[in-house]
Every structure is written in structure tokens, then in C-alpha cells.
Amino acid sequence: MRAILSILRKEFLQLRRDPKLFPVIFISPILQLLLLGYAANLDVKNIPSVVCDMDRSAASRGLIDEYLNSGYFSVAARVERMDEVDRYLDNGRAAMAFIIPRGFGDDVAAGRRASIMLIADGSESQSATIGVNYGAMIAARHNQKIILERFERARGLGLKPVLVKAEVRVWYNPELRSRNFMVPGVLGLILMIMTTVLASIGIVREREAGTMEQLIVTPIRPYQLIVGKLLPFAIIGLIDAIFVIAVARGWFGVPVRGSVPLLFALCLAFMLNTLGVGLFVSTISRTQQQAMLTSLFFIMPQIMLSGFVFPIENMPKFFQAVTTIVPLRYFFIIIRGIMLKGAGWRHLWPQAAALMVLGTLILTLSVARFQKKLD
Amino acid sequence: MPDHSITVKSLTKRFGGFTAVDAVSFDVRRGAIFGFLGANGAGKSTTIRMLCGLLDPTSGTATVGGFDVGREPEKVKRVIGYMSQKFSLYEDLTVLENIRFFGGVYGLAAKAIQARLPWILELAGLEGRERSLTRTLSVGWKQRLALGCAVLHEPEIVFLDEPTGGVDPASRRRFWELINELSERQVTVFVTTHYLDEAEYCNDIRLIHAGRIVAGGSPRQLKEEVIRNPILEVATDRAVEALEILRKEPWVLETSIFGTALHVGVADEGEGRRLIRERLAANGIAPDRIDRIVPSLEDVFIHKIEEQL
Amino acid sequence: MLHAFIGPVMRKEVRQIRRDTRSLVFMILIPAFLLVVFGFALNFDVKHVPLAIVDLEGSRLSRELAEKFRTTEYFEVKATLDRTGDIDDLMAREKIKAALVIPATFSEDLLAGRSPSVQFLLDGANAMSGTTAAGYAASILQSYSQRTTLEALERRGAGGMTLPLATEVRVWYNPELKSARFLLPGLMAFILMVILTTSTAFSIVREKERGTMEQLAVSPLPAAALIVGKLVPYVVISLASAHLVLGLGWVLFGVGIKGNYFLLLLGMVLFLVAGLGQGILISAITRTQQVAFLLSVLTTILPTFILSGFVFPIRNMPTVIQLVTYFVPARYFLVVLRSIILKGAGLPAFWGQMLLLAGFAGSTLALSVALLRTGDGRERRRAGRDA
Known about the structure:
The structure holds three protein chains of three kinds.
Chain A: H1 2-17, H2 21-26, H3 28-36, E1 47-53, H4 58-69, E2 73-79, H5 85-90, E3 96-100, H6 104-110, E4 114-121, H7 125-155, E5 165-171, H8 178-209, H9 211-216, H10 222-252, H11 260-283, H12 288-304, H13 317-322, H14 327-341, H15 345-369
Parallel strand pairs in A: 1-2, 1-3
Antiparallel strand pairs in A: 3-4
Chain B: E1 4-15, E2 18-29, E3 33-37, H1 44-51, E4 59-64, E5 67-68, H2 73-79, E6 80-83, H3 95-105, H4 110-124, H5 139-151, E7 157-161, H6 169-184, E8 188-193, H7 196-199, E9 204-209, E10 212-217, H8 219-226, E11 231-235, H9 239-247, E12 254-258, E13 261-265, H10 269-282, E14 289-293, H11 297-308
Parallel strand pairs in B: 3-8, 3-9, 6-7, 7-8
Antiparallel strand pairs in B: 1-2, 1-4, 4-5, 9-10, 11-13, 11-14, 12-13
Helix pairs in contact in B: 3-4, 3-5, 4-5, 8-11
Chain C: H1 2-19, H2 21-41, E1 49-55, H3 60-71, E2 75-81, H4 85-92, E3 98-102, H5 106-111, E4 117-123, H6 130-155, E5 165-172, H7 179-200, H8 203-210, H9 212-217, H10 223-253, H11 261-285, H12 289-307, H13 319-324, H14 329-343, H15 351-386
Parallel strand pairs in C: 1-2, 1-3
Antiparallel strand pairs in C: 3-4
Helix pairs in contact in C: 1-10, 2-7, 2-10, 7-10, 7-11, 7-12, 7-14, 8-11, 10-11, 10-15, 11-12, 11-14, 11-15, 14-15
């Protein structure tokens, strides 16, 4: 016990003495949050579009209005000729184009098939998908309207168009605010990156400096050394988590609807994993540079395969299976659940269990590899 | 109490194809100052590390403080202190913080550390500098601090790996005074060094070369028994030239430069003097003087090395 | 004069790089490895969205509607409920991301000609693809409406109506809307940026930690030569890495270069220097490797991922944030990449970006040199004091 406390005290003394480390560890998470909290746009609206109405009839104007009133499209430019459209799409000033050929209104009135063209900039596939989708949908709706109008005119009977409306309600984040999405993301990512890097480098740098040799020649037991080295990083991680959540609530107004103690307890469970990985990396790296690159090897895949931005259900089955050993995946569910959904233990115990199991495994493996020897 | 603090039998360490320590055997008496001499890369540090439980031996056995280094390295660590060749305390901690830290790691209570503090500071000559950052100390002080931290927990055996490397002569002498103090308290001191003049301060020496022990005994024993032949010191200002000339002569057993003079080992003193003057005169060199000297350990060492080659 | 000094620095750097095989291998292979993994694993498609269907009516018509959601690949029905109370629970467990609630008066309204309203609930906490999913739901409902209308008309004897409006959809640059093509440039820029900055972040600060910096400071070596000498080997290595990534992108994912390769090469070199330069700058302002590495990952991973335009289009961000994106080199490179790889566009489309990229690269290097000079001055004075 005394040994662990000695190491703890030493670690904090050293932390204080490095003037640049302090701000990087404690201030950068807040900075990242402030910066990125506004950056995500989940609600795709106002896709800049080029309108090329070569018909200029009431019918064409009516259709254009329907598009523009939907809220999904905004006018980037109105052009007269089709070849002018290219320019806007090429240099990215517009992501969609609506082209209505001459004779559109006549065709519709005469009961003939009228056609329009939608062009989407596929290099921005998100906007393109949504644009094409809504574009087609609005056209279909328009279709329906026309059919019914014709019917009405033909039969003189009024038939109300039967529309099954979709009433979209967004739970937990009603305005699809960027911050509600980013805060859990930043919290999870910062915690993972910070603790993994600190743990892996923290141990390797003692080895590089030679002080590790002096440590392992003492009768200190491996678990004491490891706990002493890793515990400070867990504490730092918790402090970072507190800062991030405080800023999230105080500045962004992101709620914490669930139990805060539970959130912190599960942060610890998560850090079991990240510190374990850091320890593991330190046992296979000789220099700090190696430790850093090897850590990246573990960090980068976790970010992408965690379900943060890329939904897991869209991944090939093989990768879906791989994500079951990505601790960050479970941690995101936990953060989102506790902060935004007010979820509790009874909802999240599977994730907590997964974190504990994975964490224990990686720590056990790493501790076993950690030798009080020089080679 | 066992008579021998350290017993070593055929200890060997191989790194891949390279044999760093080749079947060394020796025993160290309790309270002795035991010197391990050799050039850099001879295997001194590797041996020390095996004895401290830092490296696993490839073969052979050793007991330190009664414990087998291969099977019970952790028990060994409890009874030893270690000072590594490269300074390995925390540069970004103060003197006091380093002492308190290692005290705690060795399981000493805060009170115990406090009690030992004055002695350690005096030993290291660091009174008044407790709050200095270790980084700001000069090499000599750093080494003394390292020694202090190595004996904090009053171990019965202390391993010092090249403790005086890069240290000024005054500090070096002070350091050896400390080692003597420890020895007087019945602490066994195992020192490695490549300063042959320091070996004179040891009770028992082993010469190690290319992983093998080539000579051993007390300094006096070594000087008397190893070199039977006379050694002549030839003083001349063209020592390098003279060396080249004499080296080729068959009646020269060994020769090397010592400062600005030449040490020449010959079979017979009289013959030797005559032949030396002859050969050198033939090349226009007139030595200032030729004296028979008492061989120093360096002479012994070189003699032994040449024997191996 | 300057180039005389660069040679020795480069040679030493190369020797040190060669001795650390693992780091070298990592620098070259990690980007390729990550690209392969991510290229196969990730896409922006919105499919298999876990859905719960809450059918409060349970009639033939409501089941017909539910069936439409069961058979589409956009949704995967994970739960069928008869009460709305369980939805929150399932969403909290993240077993579902959306729920369709068919009201109890569904068929009633439908047959009476009233427009029934079906609720589509979205998990807003996990709503990356929320809008798209809502769009699909709306589409499905729309086509259901359409069919119902046509059936109603048929019943009234107006059968055989054809759809008056034909919509021809063209998607440029990415006809099948395969998000892989869109993803790959962003992935490349992101992965490379992180590895680049991390690779050089230690370069100068390691010398400071080891004490060899003092040796360099008192030598006549100009700071600029030190930086260039350290930079060049890494430019070469990362060029190899970047080409490997490009090659894999082409072979495995069919993303070839539609435009001019040499322009791409120029853009790539500028980007590499920018990324490596950022690492060198970090190295110049920090004193320990620990801080240098932390800074390098913190300034690259999240900022590049979020602010480069990789996932979130920059034009949708608040103006202040858009300004910040100018400090993310990947932002410029992404435009260049997408223009050349996907659009086959020429220089006019992105010369501004190239210029800005060059500016960024130049500034980091110039700043590093300036910082090193003042640092050198300090070291020289310190060395003079201790002598």
C-alpha cells in the first residue's frame, strides 16, 4: 500500500512539474468540446440547388415551389439553360439541380407524360442521398396531386387525396442539435485517447529514462507498480470527464438525465479497458515513438468502428462481430443513454458487463506480460 | 549468518548468439568490498544485473543474501541496494522527493524515512540542497544521491555499477570513503569499475574480459602472483615510436603506454635494460630513464589480457 | 550554404529511422491497413435501421403497412409492440433507433378518406442518419399512399391510370451513390493526417529530451537546415505510404484517378508537408515527448474527423466554425482529392485550395524555424553559463 501511494505521489509531483502537460490534459478536452460542439450537422436541410425552369409555366412553378417549400432545398441559382448547371455542380456551389424541360406544363395539361430531371452531386453522397430521396418523394406527391386533379376534372367527383402522413418526432434531441450528438462523442473519444496514450507513453518513458530499472530492482510487486502508474491516469480521465460534462451542461445545456454516479462508475469501467490497452502497448514498445504509433494502431479502429458516426448495423457481418470487442462501442451507448435518455442500470447492464469483461481480460493479459525484468 | 554474501557458480548469459557472461564463478565474503574490473562491454553490468534479479541467467546459479537469483529474484531484491551505471533517479523530482519516494517503495514508514534522512543527506553531502531539483545537481552529487537512495533501507548487500563514471577526482575519493564506511558496517559492497586505480581500494578483485574471469584475488595477491617477470618503466618523449619498435621484439613479454612512459615486461631485468637501450638507440631514441617498478593493477590487467589474445 | 548542412542532418535522421524498424513499418503500413479495414467496414448508407413497429390497431390495412417496412432493406424490424410504453426502454438500450406507430384509427381514417397520420419516432441521440431514415419512412408511406389512391380510383372505375410525372434522376461522379467512393478520399485524408503529424511530433523534442539538442544549438547548424533535414526523409516515406493507400483504393475499391495524376502528386506533397510540418511545429514548442504526442493526436484526430468535410459538410457549419476549418489542412486536401479522383476536374476547380495548403505548410515550417532559433539562442546562452 505504501508503495502504491509513493508512486502515486511521485506521478502527481511529476505531472505538476511539466508546465505544458497540465493544460494539454485538462484544457484541451474543453477546447475540443467548445470547438466541435457546434460542428456536426445532423439535420440536412437547405441543400443548395440550381433551378433550371425552361418551361416557365404555372405548372412548373408550382412544382418548383413544392420543392422549395419542403425546407430541404434552397436556391443557389436560377439558370436559363441546362449547360449552365454544370458550373455550379462542378465547383460545389450547388449539390442538386432541378431541370424542368420546355413543354412541361403543356404535357401535364394534355394528360401526357411529363418528365423532369434531378441531378445530384454524388461526391457528397449524404446530401445526394437525401436530396434524391426527397426529390423523388416530392415528385411522387406531386404525381398524386395531378392524378387526383385529373380524376376530379374527368369525373367531376371530388376525391380527397389520401395521404398517409409521416409525423416525425425526434426523441431526446428534438431539434437534432449538433451538441447533443457531439458531447457524448467528444467525451468518449477524449477519454479513450487521453488515457490510452498517457498509459502507454507513461510507462515507456520511464523505461527510456532508465528510472524503470531503479524501480524494478526494488522489492515492489508488479501489481503495485502497475496500479501506482495507472491510477493517476484514471483520476485524470475522471477529472476530464467532469470537465467535459460540466461544460456540456453549463455552456451547451446538454442535459444529464440519468444518474451521474452511475456515469462515472461506468467511466471507470471503460478506463479499465483503455488503461489495459495502454499497458499492453507499453509491454511491446521499446521507445516512446513506438508506443505512440502502436497506440494509434489500437485507437484509430476503435474510433471508426464504435458506431459513433458510422452505424454498426450497416457494416458487413464480419466487422459487426469485430465491434463486439471494441470497448468504445459500449461506452457510447452508455453515455448517450445516461446523458440524453435517462437510462439506468437496468437498461445498460449488458454494456457495463461487456466493459468489465473486456477490461479484465486485457488487463490480465497485459499484467501477465509485464515483467520485473530488463529483457 | 552465512560467511559468503554472494556465491556464483558458472553464471552465463547469452543474448542470441552473443555470450556476454561466460561461466563466471566467485564468492564474496560478507562485509567485503568486492571489485569487478573490466573494460566497457566486458560483461560487468550484465553480471550485476543478473545478481540483482534484473536479468535471467541463461545457465549457472548464484545466490545473493542466501536467495537464489534465478528462482527467488524478488527475495533477493529485498536485501540488496542497487546503483545503476546510468543515472536512474527522477530528474524532475527534488532530492527530498526522490529519497521519500524510494523509501516508500522499499516499504519504509514516513517516520523511518525521516529518521534516516539526516544520515543520507550527510552521506551524500546534500545537506541544504534537499529542495533542489535533481536535474540541477552536478554529476558527482547525483551519484551520491543515487548511492543514498540505494542504501536507504539498510540492505546487507549493495551493488554499484560504475558509480564514479564521469565524476571529478575529489568526489571520487569521497565516494570511496563512503564505500569504506559501508563496509565497516558489515555491508557487502559489490562494485564494478573500469578505473583500475580504484581497484586498489577493494578487498577482493576479479578481472573480467570478454565475459570471462581472467584473474582474481586481493590487489596485493594479483600484483605479486600474476606478474612474476619484472616490469621496466621507460621514460622517453618518443614513447609512441618506442612502443612500435619494442612491440615487435620477441624478448618483450608485453608493453604498453602508461601516461608518457612505456611499461615493458621482460624475462630478466639486466638483459632487458640492455636490450631496450640497444634497440631504441638503433632508432635514435635515448630514454631518459629505465626503472624497475612495482606492477600496478593496470599492468596486471594488461598482462592478463595479452595472455588471452 | 544552407544545403551543405541539410545533408548530414538528413543522413542522421535516415540512419535513426532505419534502426527503428517497427516505427518505419508502422508509418508505411498503418495507413494502408486502416484504409483497407475502414474501406470495407464503413459506408454512409442508411440501411437496416433497427426499427420497432407499434401497431395499435392490428387491422389488415395496418398490417399491410407494417409489411412494407418489414420487407424493405432500409429498416430491420427488431420488435413488434402493441403498446407505445416499451419504446423508450428499447431506445435506451439502443435495441432500436426508430419506431413506427400506427394509430388505432388507421383503417377508419383511411377508408373514410381522412389522412391518417403515422408517427415515426427517431432516436435523436444517435441520429447521424436520422434525416435519411425519416426520408425513407416518408417515401415508404408516400408510395403506400400512392398505391392506396390508385386502388381507390380503380374501385371508382378510373383504372389504368399511369403516373403522369416521370422523374429522371442522374447522380454525377458517383452514379450508384456508392458511399465508398465518397468515403475513400475523406478516409485517406484523415488517416494520413493523423499518422503524418504523429510521425514527426517526436523528431525535435526527442533531441531535447536526450540532451543532444544542446549539442546542436552550439553548432553552426542553422535552424532551417535542421528542420528541412528532418522533414525530407519523412516526406519520402509518407509519399510511399500515400501511394500505397491510393493503390489499394484503386485495386480494392475501384476508386481510380479520373483527373491529372501530377496535379494530385503536387497536392499530395503539399499536404504531406503540411501534416509533417504540423508535427514538427508541435515538436518545436514542447519539451517532452509525452506532451508532443498528446498534442499531435489531440490536434489531428477529432479536428480532422469532424472539421475537414469528411463526414459533415463544411457549408452547413456555423460561420465561426467554418473559419476554424481553415486551420485543418485535410480540408484543403479533401477538395483537391475529390476534385481529381471523383470529378476529374482540372486546376481551376481547386487552385485556391492548393495555394492555401501551400500557405499552411509554409507557415508551420517558418514558425518552427523561428521558434527553434529563439530556443537555440536560449540553449547557447545556457551552455555559455554552464561552461
